Every structure is written in structure tokens, then in C-alpha cells.
Amino acid sequence: MVGRLGLAACLLAGLALPGFLQPAAADPPRRVLSMNLCTDQLAMLLAAPGQLVSVSYLARDPTASAMAEEAARLPVNHGLAEEIVLMRPDLVLAGGWTASGTIRLLQRLDVPVEVFPVETDIAGIRANIRRMGDVLGREAAAEALLARFDADLARLADASPAPRPRAALYAVNGYSSGSATLAGQIVALAGFDNVADELGLPAGGVLALETLLLSDPDLLVEGRRYPGHARGQEVLDHPALKALTAGRPAEVMADPDWVCGTPFILRAVAQLRAARLALRGAR
Amino acid sequence: MSGPRYPLLIAALSALVAVLFLASLLTGPAGIGAGQSLAALFGGGDGTLALIMRELRLPRAILGLLVGAALGMSGAVLQGFLRNPLAEPGLIGTSASAALGAVLAIQTGLSAAFPLGLPLAALAGAALSVLLVLALAGPRGGTLALILAGIAISALAGAGTSLVLNLSSNPFAANEIVFWMMGSLADRSMLHVWIAAPFMGLGFAVLWPTRQALQALTLGEDAAASSGVHLGRLRLMLVAGIAALIGSATAVAGTVGFVGLVVPHVLRRAVGASPARLVPAAALGGAATVLAADIAVRLIAPGRDLKLGVLTALVGAPFFLHLILKTRREGL
After folding, report:
1. Cα B154 from Cα B146, distance rounded (Å)
2. Angle between helices B190-207 and B58-82 (to 10 degrees)
3. Residue A238 and residue B189: Cβ atoms within 8 Å?
4. Could you report the predicted ipTM of this complex, rounded to two decimals?
């Protein structure tokens, strides 16, 4: 009873003193836990030594994460509310895809959660880097990372002379992505027009193999294959697709550089830019 | 039923299948003219158009025809043998078991190492489930026992399929549950035709001669036996034929439900309730139904890969309810 009264008093005091509710502003969090592959990587890039106590298990998977080695040194979580609470974090970092039920549960258990929206363009990536610096109390590190990112980006962004060559993204299940997605932004930054935009799929969607063949792209960027077996992957081996790529350049999307809005996307931009320059050289 | 009407029915159904086959060849997101498409299909050349016609549209139309014929014929034979209008490969769990076999073949890598492993595994699953249903429902195929056995086998096989796909290390495998439960002919290749066609041919060849025995069975088992029908052999042919047809159909197109239920029922009156005449008519009717459904999914939601089974279930399930009510009224 006394404890509950004390808690109520504290809450009232907190309401009276807004500063009390925002310890992050004054005092950086000391036990930060990330439960999303993309916030994992931004946090590993920016956190002070010892500040990050756990990342998601996906961060250790070299086929999905660009920082698998760094993640191997940290304990991992599986995004379950129970294990997260037991790790006693004073800040949880979540992404736009994180299960909202888990986030609400953590908030009800008085664990502060910062949700980072999914990045779909350069502005979104810059905003998330700056915000990660703010919530971790690492503003200087964030500014340094941004400066490096901007400089690297400027080096890659030589304007492609019109008409720009056309690229098509084609992944498992015939999924393609247009300019409203991060993958589409990578294609655009590398100096390509995107077939998915021409076909009215800026936000991505299933592209019938027949439509892809007719669109006649200059470059096919294939989705990577995953371990194990899935019918959806068969479409990447369809004889008609093989006939399209025969004698044409094709690149493969390596997930670590394509799925998360981190400075690592510049490796994918460089990969496609090199393909574009090779394409022009071949003509 | 007078003589000349039956050949007329078969001719009309054949014409319908031919028209729908052609329509299936000419339906697609590309929106190419009919003359141009057919020229690309039959003429020479290796342009994009020929590629689309030969490697995408042709296998899709052939598989629609084969899968539909397999489903229609299996339904007619099963209903004739069990003398029960509710018997159908989808409802008695054959398709679900075939799907489990196919999923196991894909997930263990058997189908990648050996292309015929896929239809063979599906065939084994289908054969096992038909044997199980015949054992559980008894020779007479009482409605209640048949449907309950079918529900149990479908649920078990469906759960097995979901379990295998959920345990897969591939992040996209779990999505495939929809394909195995609802079926689709999108983006199939000639390879799928080659692995399914031999087994389909075998299944049609085994079930074709059962027509006379099915006809004799309408008089009851004793009368059939006295007129020279060997029930044990008939049962064996039925299991082998249906397993071959449903196994290979499911391996390449997933589970397409209700075709084997609705088609024989619609055609039964037109063939004068003769099981022998129903078998070829139902095969043609099934082919027409699946070809039409596959054209419809491409027209209703182009580029969305609407599943075939969604359409057939939307039409078939109300029909199934109607059949149940009718069966109850007749006190069967």
C-alpha cells in the first residue's frame, strides 16, 4: 500500500515536473536494447561502448545483416516481451515492422520504447541517424556519421545522362519494388529508371513474369536466393526468365546492403552504378 | 436418355474445352492481339512474344486442361464407386495429402535432386489417403463416415503441410501454405507439364476401363459381382488411378477444391445418371471449369495471383451446402 502511494506520488511529481519524465534529454540511457534488424545496425554504429546491451538475433545473420561480426559480440533477443523485460533495458529501440502488440505490452510495463519508421529514401535514413544520435545521447557521433554518408553519397551521385537505362527488380514470388521503396531509391540513385514505376508499382508488388519479359529492362536485379526450399523461389529459375537474362547483365540484391536504411546502402548503389557504367561501355 | 443426345453432349463439351483452351492462351497481362499471339506460338522466331506464348501461356493452358480433367474424372469415379454424391478428392482429403507429399518432396530437396520426386511423393500421399478413406468409410461409403474420415485426413494433412513449411529455413516457405491450400497456375513452365503429364496419362488409362464396373455397381455389389466385376481389383484400380491423377495435379497446381464435386453433379442428369457415361463427360467438364476459372482469376485481379481454389470454392461451397440439404431431404 505504501509502495503504491509512493508510486502515485512519484507519478504526480513527474507530472508537475516535465523534466523528470524525460531523463533521456539530460541523462543518456545506459542499457539500450534493440529488437529490430535496422535499429540494431544504426545503434551499433552510434552507441557508446557498453551502452547497447542486446540486439535482435537477425543482426548476427550474415545473410541479412551488414554488421554480423559486431553483433556476434552482443547478447541477442528474439523480440519477445518477456525476454526483453528480463534484460532490464532503460530504452528499447523498435522498427516500423515490429509487432505493435509487443510494443504496447512493453510500454504498459513502463519500458520506454522508441519506434523508428521504415526508411524509404535518403531523407528518411538521415532523419533516423540523427534521431538515433538524439535518443542515445550520441549527437556528435551521429553528425560525424551523417557527414561521412553525405560525402560518400556525393561521390556516387554523378548524374546519368538521359535517356537513363532501365532496371527491373525481381525477387522471390515475382516481387518488384518501385521508387517509393528503399530498394527503388537505390536503383534511382545508381542512375536507372525503374520498370516497376512505369508499370504502376511504385510501392512494390507482384510483377507477372509475362509483364516483366515485355518490359524489356536493360538490367535485371534479381532477388537473392534463401537457404532451404520454397516454391516462390522457382520463378527465379523459370526458363523464360533465364532466356531474358541470357546475354544481358544481371545483378543480385545482397540483403545486408538492401533491406535497411543504413549507410551500407551505398555499397548497393556502387554495385548498380558499376553495372550502369559497364552497360554504357558495352553499347 | 436417348442415344444421340450423349454424343452431342460430348461434342459440345469438347468444343467448349477447345474454345476455353484458346481463350486461356490469349489471356494475360501483356494484352497482345490474338493473331499476333498465335503467330508467335506456332510460327518461328525467338522473340519475347514467342517466349511468352511458349514458355508461359502454353504450359498454363495445358496444365489447366489436365488438372481440370483429372479433378472431374476423379470426382465422377469416386462418386460412382462409393455411390455417394459427396465423394470428391478435395473433401475426402486426397488433395490435402497429395499436397503434404509434394511439400515434403520440396522441403527435403528431393524434387530439386530428382524432378519426378515431386509428383511421386504427391502420388504416395494421395494413395495413402484414398486407402485410408476406403478403410475408414467401408465399402459402401456411408455419407457420415466418408465425410468425417475426409475431414480428419484433410485436417491432419493440412496441419502437416503447415508444420513442414513453418519449420523451413526459407523465409518465404510459410507463405506457400496459401498455394497448397488454394492452388494456382501462375508462372508454371513446361517442366511442370513434363513432370505431371506422364502420371496423368497413367491415371486416365487406369480409370477409363472402370466405367463398365461402375455401371454394374449401380445394381448393388452382389449383382455387380455376379456380372463379373472383381471388386478387389476395381478398388485397386481406383486407388492407383485417383492417386496418379490427384497426386500429379496437386504437385503442379496445389489444391483446387470442389471441381470434382460440382462438375459430375451438374452433368449427371445430362448423361442419364449413368456412371459409365459420366466419367468422360466429367473429365471434359472439369477441364472446362478449371480453364474458365484460370481465365477468370487473370481477368478479375490481373497481377495479383488470385488463387484458383478461391474461385472454385466460392462457387463450390454453396453448392456443397445445397447437396447436403438435398441428401438430408432424401434421407440418405
Report:
1. 12
2. 20
3. yes
4. 0.71
